[in-house]
Design goal:
single chain; mainly beta; 4 helices; 86 strands; MyBP-C_THB; immunoglobulin domain; cell adhesion; actin-binding; thick filament
Length: 1158
């Protein structure tokens, strides 16, 4: 709007300034008076409003108090390409002591100046009457690359301001001229019919060129993807100018057409978190037009997933509960026009809900590492010892997914597979250790020698630790083959060889050899021949054993679980009655077995086929059988045979050996950062054989995987377990081992956590001391560890004595009471947590227990002269010490302080001197005294209050010669209570009266000014300077005319032509075809040279890439880089880089292939 009401402020949204073709445009900002109002009023010309012309500007540098009043918001200036454009700013210089500095910027950082090219010309003038600086930026031959935002920054010594402009180079046709002036009026726009006719001729010529080819040919050419198709189409339709056709086609492809159907387009890309919903909004020109939505080329239909909304002219597509399947390219079509966009679905962090367990396997075993994550179908990465595992690098690894569970499978483990395995997701990681050991086979039950009779059954049985181990049986070194009479079985850990109907030729040595192990088990089969002798019918009963006799004993050792069979030959006529008795009841008849009925004392009778322990009766022998020996079967057994002729008896002792009981009282006695001490008691029952050692295992709490800690038996009952992770709960158990085998596991230890004591406390200091107390303070340890800290232990001792401790202190401070007065005492503090005590933090020097003498702790900055400017606050905080509270006294130059000008506040630990507004008379020496009875400490503080100096005096021109002037002056009478650090000299031509700085920080009281113009009259002024700055007023010298040079001297400038450095863009390094993996960010690089600096346009499939968050474009010294963040298969295609300046353009292309990992 050109005019306004008086006193009305301009709007903050920006102004529009159209320009006719071929004319120059001056855009400026009206100055603002105090309060933000325009410097002039409104309306109709005159001194109060807007007016015509190319002047305009920013009257901000002296417009009012504080910052100047530039209009907030941008000025929009459309201009056709190829024409000139001028941007103009005016600055009020009535209150400026010197010429302000001006800098022009394009965009945010690009500064325009002499290095930007000859098209950008900066100029400045000074209106002596109005005291106004006029700064102008002239852009010759505006090109498309000149569009954008421009900024002008004006900076003075104490004030600054800026204004912004926006240039649009795409506007054509009749453009009006606006002039913004300070103190002018408003005039109607100027019409330029000649330029309009020129534009219409160009447009008509362009239409004629477009008519040279039928429209269907252009549509056919725009759809071509292969370059070879261009020649075929040109030959088919009789087009001879192939090069011209390609140039016009190239321009047609990059031409941005304004949409007729859409008034608001889709964004280049959308991003949404997985599970959330996203809305895509377009606005169409006609609400009756039908609209269709497509996903990857497939039309979308309304559903609960896809919701279509019509709100006026807005068309909204809502996608509910977005999944990874919704990450695709979307298309909106109205009639023949289409809009394209992409949707990126961001996955939430994948967390590990169940981590890896430690595994301990043998060579050749199958290993399966399992982890469970929070999302199904999530991507995980497996690593071994920090190296990623893939199918390409190691074919032995197999990866498997099952819902939320992921598996790493090793079919046949080798010792090289031992290591630390790690699985990583984008939200966490887990580690597990795999230990692969050589196979070690343990014999749990050896085979025993057998003695059998003819036609009986012989059974050899052994047990090994591995159920999968197979083996072979040998007879006297010859492999035994199964037959009808010989049976070989393998069930679990047990291997059996059964021989039916034993014959004399079966007597031999039998051996079992496990496959793959250097181990063999041997036993002998003895064949018992039966000799038939004639026995008289009347014969006393007799037991035929080597141990016959009532007092003889024979010990039989049997392994628990094995079968016991005692075959006792007996004779007697008539057939004797056999009784078996056990233990202390021998002779008392307490437990008697008799075939066919109860014993003499009524004990339980075992029949031939009943019970675990039974008696078998044969014609010439009695057999006592226990099918599976138990620990309770160990005792003394007595067999008694009786007939009418007499009685005989024999005693046998059965000893049952077994694996020992589990160890008892398994416990953890101490822990460290990665270790723990395990202690246990030996088992009460050793299984009948001495304990040979122990085996230990551990696991993480909650896991089911136990890991062995030793493979060789360990003889002691105390074991140190290492290589544990601090802060993780563990459990441990112990097995006892004897010659028979391994016991059952002991009870698990209580869950424990490897933790280490903390480091020593830090910054131990003495805060206060009296005649009987000392107050200590410290800070927590630097390293607490997983155990945290439970408290602190404070200890003290006299020099040369032992340390004495106090109770546990929770806070980082403690007052030790009841100390002997005058003694020197050492103090130390120890951190305590569940892991124990830390190293002590000890004070370096002993503390003397007595009242503190007065002492002033003067800050370092007050030990030298303290300087403040006039008007500033003086606030000095000076700490001191002393017990009891000392008396504090302040003096200045030996006299007491005036409480009206200086405030003093004193506490137990410090004193404060405060001056609200410093003046020159506050300078001087301040004495501080701290006194306790007859003890006193003093300190002196030097304060100097300074201000700006006065102007130099007696400034005069001493001599003038050639192009030079000698200027001298005297130092100022008032140096501002600070030494003069230098002088600033300025000159001004009488014609313009613009002051320019010649010298700054000149130390001497004279200087020589050179490079003056012959015949001009100059004025000079000098400012004095100290640490507060320049003096407010300068010392001025009278104007001095500069003499003309002697006649006869003529300057002839050299005749030469300036070199033209301009050049069209040229590709130095082209783009290269690339193949990348989906999900891993990549970058495309090329190098381009050109002057002026070309504008760079990146395109994908010949469509310009604009402000897309997926792409990041960089330009560093001509090296162009396009970063693509986590590309997907939809990002594959042809990428182009186009560099354009006023002299031409350059194009380079490449193909990007995105591969999805299998």
């Amino acid at each position: 709007d050109g005019g306004g009401r008086p006193g009305e402020a301009l709007p903050a949204g920006g102004l529009s300034a159209p320009c006719p073709p071929g004319k120059e445009l001056a855009v400026g900002v009206p100055g603002a008076g105090p309060g933000g109002l325009p410097a002039g009023g409104a309306g109709g010309g005159g001194a109060g409003g807007w007016g015509p012309g190319r002047a305009g500007g920013c009257r901000g540098m002296g417009a009012g108090p504080g910052r100047g009043g530039c209009l907030r918001g941008a000025l929009s200036a459309p201009c056709p390409p190829g024409k000139a454009l001028a941007l103009q700013v005016q600055v009020d210089g009535s209150q400026l002591s010197a010429r302000p500095g001006v800098r022009w910027f394009k965009g945010k950082w690009l500064e325009l100046g002499t290095k930007s090219g000859i098209r950008f010309q900066c100029s400045e003038t000074f209106d002596q009457d109005k005291k106004v600086y006029i700064f102008e930026l002239l852009i010759g031959k505006v090109v498309i690359g000149d569009r954008g935002d421009y900024r002008c920054e004006v900076t003075g010594k104490e004030k600054s301001d800026m204004c912004t402009f926006s240039i649009d180079v795409e506007g054509l046709g009749l453009i009006k001229t606006w002039a913004l002036l300070v103190g002018g009026g408003f005039d109607s726009p100027l019409a330029c019919p000649r330029e309009v006719q020129v534009e219409e001729k160009k447009k008509k010529k362009k239409d004629e060129e477009d008519d040279a080819f039928p429209p269907e040919i252009w549509e056919l050419l725009k759809g071509v993807t292969k370059k070879s198709e261009y020649e075929r189409i040109a030959f088919q339709y009789g087009i001879t100018d192939l090069r011209g056709m390609l140039k016009r086609l190239k321009k047609a492809k990059v031409e941005v057409k304004k949409s007729a159907a859409f008034t608001r387009k889709l964004d280049p890309a959308y991003q949404v978190d997985k599970g959330n919903k996203i809305k895509m909004v377009v606005e169409i020109s006609d609400p009756d037009l039908p609209i269709k939505w497509y996903k990857n080329g497939q039309e979308l239909k309304p559903s609960a997933k896809y919701v279509f909304e019509n709100v006026g002219k807005k068309r909204i597509l809502t996608i509910n509960k977005c999944t990874l399947a919704d990450d695709a390219a979307y298309e909106c079509a109205v009639a023949d026009e289409k809009l394209f966009t992409e949707l990126f679905v961001k996955e939430p962090p994948v967390l590990i809900t169940k981590g890896l367990d430690d595994h301990q396997v043998f060579v050749g075993d199958r290993v399966q590492l399992e982890v469970e994550v929070s999302e199904e179908g999530a991507q995980v990465m497996w690593m071994k010892d920090g190296v990623e595992l893939t199918r390409d690098t190691a074919f032995k690894y197999r990866f498997k997914k099952d819902g939320k569970k992921h598996y790493l499978i090793i079919n046949e483990a080798t010792k090289e597979d031992t290591g630390l395995y790690r699985v990583m997701t984008n939200g966490g990681q887990s580690e597990g250790e795999l230990v692969v050991e050589d196979k070690q086979l343990e014999v749990l039950q050896d085979i025993a020698d057998l003695t059998v009779k003819a036609a009986e059954q012989a059974e050899f049985k052994c047990e090994v630790s591995d159920e999968k181990v197979t083996g072979k049986w040998y007879k006297n070194g010859v492999e035994v083959r199964p037959s009808k009479r010989i049976h070989i079985t393998h069930k679990g850990r047990f291997h059996k060889l059964v021989i039916e109907d034993v014959r004399p030729e079966d007597e031999a040595d039998y051996t079992f050899v496990p496959d793959g192990f250097a181990l063999s088990l041997s036993a002998k089969l003895n064949f018992l021949e039966i000799k038939v002798e004639y026995v008289p019918k009347q014969e006393p009963p007799r037991i035929h054993l080597d141990c016959s006799g009532k007092t003889a004993e024979n010990t039989i050792i049997v392994v628990a679980g094995n079968k016991v069979r005692l075959d006792v030959p007996i004779t007697g006529e008539p057939a004797p009655t056999v009784s078996w008795m056990k233990g202390d009841k021998v002779g008392a008849g307490a437990e008697t077995w008799a075939p066919g009925g109860r014993g003499l004392c009524g004990e339980w009778l075992f029949t031939d086929t009943e019970g675990r322990a039974r008696v078998e009766v044969h014609p010439d022998e009695s057999s006592f059988v226990i099918d599976s020996a138990e620990r309770g079967d160990e005792d003394t057994y007595c067999i008694t045979v009786t007939n009418p002729v007499g009685q005989d008896s024999a005693v046998l002792h059965i000893k049952v050996v077994d694996v020992p009981d589990p160890p008892e009282a398994v416990r953890i006695t101490s822990v460290g950062e990665d270790w723990a001490i395990l202690v246990w008691d030996p088992p009460k029952y050793d299984g009948g054989n001495p304990i040979t050692g122990y085996l230990m295992e551990r696991k993480k709490k909650g896991s089911m995987r136990w890991m062995k800690l030793n493979f060789e038996v360990y003889g002691d009952t105390t074991y140190e377990s290492t290589r544990m992770i601090e802060g993780v709960l563990y459990e441990m158990r112990v097995f006892a081992v004897n010659a028979i085998g391994v016991s059952q596991p002991s009870h698990n230890t209580k869950p424990f956590m490897p933790i280490a004591p903390t480091s020593e406390p830090t910054h131990l200091t003495l805060e206060d001391v009296t005649d009987t107390t000392a107050t200590l303070k410290w800070r927590p340890p630097d390293r607490l560890g997983a155990g945290g800290i439970d408290g602190y232990l404070v200890q003290y001792c006299l020099e040369g004595c032992e340390w004495g401790g106090l109770g546990l202190v929770e806070r980082c401070g403690f007052t030790v009471k009841g100390l002997p007065t005058g003694q020197k005492i050492l103090f130390r503090v120890i951190g305590v947590n569940i892991a124990g005590q830390s190293a002590p933090a000890t004070m370096g020097q002993p503390v003397t227990i007595r009242e503190i003498q007065p002492k002033i702790r003067l800050p370092r900055q007050l030990r030298q002269t303290y300087i403040k400017k006039v008007g500033e606050q003086v606030n000095l905080l000076i700490p001191f010490q002393g017990k009891p509270r000392p008396k504090v006294t302040w003096m200045k130059d030996g006299r007491p302080l005036d409480p009206k000008e200086v405030s003093i506040r004193t506490s137990d630990l410090d004193t404060i001197l405060f001056i609200r507004s410093a003046a020159r008379h506050h300078s001087g020496q301040y004495q501080l005294s701290v006194q306790i009875e007859n003890m006193e400490d003093q300190a002196t503080i030097q304060i100097r209050v300074v201000e700006k100096p006065g102007p130099p005096v007696a400034v005069q021109v001493k001599e003038v010669w050639g192009f030079n002037v000698l200027l001298e002056w005297q130092p100022p009478k008032d140096d501002g209570n600070s030494e003069i650090t230098g002088y600033t000299i300025q000159k001004a031509d009488k014609k313009t009266m613009e002051w320019f700085t010649v010298y700054e920080h000149n130390r001497l009281t004279r200087c020589t000014i050179s490079d003056l113009v012959m015949g001009n009259e100059y004025s000079f002024r000098v400012y004095s300077q100290n640490i507060c700055g320049l003096s407010d007023t300068p010392g001025a010298a009278t104007p001095v005319p500069h003499p003309w040079p002697p006649l006869g001297i003529i300057f002839k400038p050299l005749d030469y032509q300036e070199h033209d450095f301009r050049m069209a863009p040229r590709v130095l390094t082209p783009l290269i075809d690339r193949t990348v993996v989906a999900g891993y960010s990549t970058a495309l690089n090329c190098a381009v040279r050109g002057h002026p600096k070309p504008k760079v346009i990146w395109m994908k499939n010949h469509v310009e890439i604009r402000e897309d968050p997926k792409f990041l474009m960089k330009n560093s010294q001509g090296v162009l880089t396009l970063h693509i963040r986590k590309p997907s298969p939809f990002d594959a295609g042809t990428y182009s880089c186009l560099a354009v300046n006023e002299l031409g353009e350059a194009l380079t292309e490449c193909k990007l292939d995105v591969r999805v990992p299998q």
